[in-house]
Amino acid sequence: MFTIRTAITNDAEAIAGLMSELGYPASPESIALRMRKMEADLMYCTLVADFRGRVIGMIHLRTVYSYINDDVGAQVSTIVTKPEFRGQGVGKELMKHGENWAREQGAQGILLNSGIKKERDDAHRFYEKIGYKITGYRFAKRLTDS
Fold this sequence. Notes:
single chain, alpha+beta, 5-stranded mixed beta sheet, 32% helix
């Protein structure tokens, strides 16, 4: 059985591995630096799924505000489970804990972005299965050359 807990800086190496699974490779040192920045801001939350002392999944969220309405919202920035643990309820449990955190922050809604590549089809089915609906497209533009 696995548990869900708040991520700590010592999880940086495992989180770096999970981010590589998503196609966003980074060094453990870089991940640790990012974690320290977000840990200092209460609008961010990173939770991990821990199986016998091994990080097997993570979710990263943030609180968001908008001019569209007065609601507090939350956004899932990252969710990933190690491939060998997929289909075992890890992602579902991470999402449940993430949604609970969002509610504790006063969020009335939650959103997430997911790429439109074919390899994301399983993730899309998962999101729909747990009650998420497709509401639009995401557009992005890089502002620096690095």
